[in-house]
Every structure is written in C-alpha cells, then in structure tokens.
Amino acid sequence: MAVIGLVLTVALRRDPDGGEPMVVAAIEKRAAPVASIPAPVDPAAAAPRGTASAAQLENSAGVTVVRAGEEAPEAIVITIPDAAGTITLATAPDNRLVERSRYGLLPKTGPDGATPAKIYARPLGTEPMAKPAGRIALLVGGLGISQSGTADAIAKLPAPVSLAFAPYGTELERTVQRARSEGHEVFLQLPMEPFDYPDNDPGPHTLLTGPKAPDNIDKLHWALGRFTGYVGIVNFLGGRFTADESALSPVLRELAGRGLMVVDDGSSARSLLAGSADRARIPSLKIDRIIDGVTRADAIDKELAALENLAREQGIVVAAASALPVSIERINRWAQSLEAKKIAIVPVSAARGFRSPKSTGSIKSTGSLQ
After folding, report:
1. Which residues are CB-contacts of 240 (< 8 A; sequence separation ≥ 6)?
2. Which residues contact 44 (CB under 8 A, 6 or more apart)?
3. Which residue in 283, 282, 302, 284 sits closest to 292, CA to CA?
4. Tens of pLDDT along 294-350?
5. Rounded to 5 degrees, what are φ and ψ at 356?
6. Other C-beta atoms lying within 10 Å of the C-beta of residue 30
7. For the whole prediction, is pTM greater than 0.85?
8. Under 8 Å between Cβ of 186 and 261
9. d(CA 50, CA 128)
10. pLDDT tens digits, one per residue of 239-261
C-alpha cells in the first residue's frame, strides 16, 4: 500500500505594524446583562426537516469552506492524490491458504478453491485507455539476503516488477510483507542441485538428485515455511535437478496440491521444470531472457532495449534479473522511459494470460490460476 506523507511548514512572522504609535483607551465597568429566560421550544419545530444544506452545516460547525474558484488569502492548499487507482495486494497470510507445520505456515489450496497463485498475485488494475504496444514481465531474484540491496530493490523498482526471495535471509516475513505493501508480488526461490554440486552449492536444504532425493519433501517444506504471501516458486540454480524427471516429479506433485505457480528461470537449456509442471496441471511459465548475464551497465541497457523490441513483436516477453546494484539502477532508469514508448510492465503472474502458445518460450497452459 502506498503511504502518502504531507509535510506542512508554517513560517511565523512578527506584526509589521507593531510598536509606535500607541493609543490610550478608557475602560468602563458595566453591570452584567440580565440573563433572559429562553422561550419554550416547540418539539415539532425543533425536529429536523430534511437534509441540511452545506451552508447550514458550515454555519452550525463554525467552519469556513473555501471552494474552487474562490480566493483564499494566505491559505495553504493541500492536494491529496486520488487513491482510487492505487493497486493493493491481498493481506497475507490468508487463513484459508495456510496450514501449520513444524516449519511454520505452509501454503495450500483453500476449501473454496482459492489458491495462493491467484489471491497473492498483483492485480493488473484498470486497463489503459490506449492498448500498449507491448508488455514486459520482469522477475528480479536474489532478495532477502542483503538487507541494503533488498531495500533498494523494493524502493527503486516499479511496483509491477515481481520479486523473488531466497529462503536464507533474516526477518524474511517482515521484509516480504514490506515488499508486498509497496505493490510487488513475490515468489520463493527454491535451491536446487546444479551440475557442479557441491563445488557450486546453493546452500542448506538444497533439493538433490540421487540417493538423497527422498529427503526433498522435508527440505521443500522447510523452504515453503520461511515466509508467506508468495505467488509461486522459481528455481535457484538447479541445472541437474531440473533435468532429472525422477527427482523433479515428487516435488511437483507436492506443489500441485498447494496452489502455487511454478516459474523456470531459463538458466538451463536442459530444464524440464516448466513442461513437467504443466503436465502436473500446475500454472507454469518459463523466462525468455536474463538481462544481466553480463553485469555491465551498457550490456544491461542493450538487453533492456531488446526486451522492448520483443514485446512489440510478441505482445509479451518475460525476463529475469538479479538484485545487483547495477541491475536495479539500470532497470529503474529504463522503466521511466517506457510510458512514452507505450510499453507496459506487468506482473509475472499476469504474463500467462497475455502469452500465446505460439510465442517464443511459451508453455501451453493446461493449468490455471484458480
């Protein structure tokens, strides 16, 4: 929820006419006036007769109202922006959508069929008068570990940009809810085994292939319980895990009953994540492009320009970035130019609705955000 602060500074000044000359006035003492006896009140006459006019209300309250077009000498006019178009996210956790576990509150599908994927998603809001020339969905991940980097991402990125949080940060629940209060829908990053594991280790509770795969459901529950209010999950690394159907299937079966969306971050060409999720009737999506594979400002700017072209050609493009300072700064600058170009940023959860099965990188959708 957006917070609007109004700061008023009142300058105190001395009376310019104070001081000389002075006047001496005589003060007379007079007898106090005799109190008059009030006349009897007719109850019928005292009863309200219809709705009072604005002028009557002002007179009875002793308030002077200055209306538009009238002069208000030395007045301070405060304009409060119309909040009717403000987009707010549903409160989390929603009691229908959680179950208690030894790892905290886990997401689930509600008894009425409501799902976290739908309830916690950022609404699209009012459709613009002019149809956008293209739409871009952007997911920025790696949040929750660096407090300063996370705070910058929440404050500087446009609200429609979706944010993905790693499960390892401190005070995650409070940080995530702050992000949601600023309008960002959020995702949970699940650490998954890469090809060069353990040399490249995503951290404790990583989902693994091979003999340790039976422990994955317990590890999954630990990650799912780290905070609430997320739309779905996105893989963190996981080249080997997402290419192993036998390891992936039990995890997807568990996720299918929890009403979550699954996003493939597009980092591995061998990944089966989005396709397998789709077959499990889980709403799924695959990232088209990673914009900060090269972490230089000029390289990121080039990728952002490419996103605009793809959005115009395809209608919708889905991209990902890491919460690096240079990435946040370039996205922030770039986003300010999009309105003039008639390009709209939309939440990742909404990208499936705009995406055609024939579009590049798309997944034919059998699941739905119910």
Report:
1. 192, 193, 194, 195, 197, 209
2. none
3. 302
4. 999 999 999 999 999 999 999 999 999 999 999 999 999 999 999 999 999 999 999
5. -90, 145
6. 5
7. no
8. no
9. 42
10. 999 999 999 999 999 999 999 99
Structure tokens at 292: 């900060």
pLDDT at 233: 98
The phi and psi torsions of 334 (rounded to 5 degrees) equal -65, -40
- CB atoms closer than 10 angstroms to residue 106: 19
Do the strands 98-101 and 261-264 form a parallel or antiparallel pair, or are they unpaired?
unpaired
Q: Which of 357, 315, 275, 347 is nearest to 123 (CA)?
A: 347
Q: Which amino acid is at 263?
A: V
Q: Token pair for residue 288?
A: 């088209």
CA distance 224 to 167: 8
Q: How far apart are CA 288 and CA 360, in angstroms?
A: 8
Token pair for residue 255?
């996720």
Q: Which two tokens stand for residue 322?
A: 């890491």
Integer Cα distance of 279 and 364 in angstroms: 10
Cβ-proximal residues to 138 (8 Å cutoff; 6+ apart), any chain: 160, 161, 162, 318, 319, 320, 321, 331, 345, 348
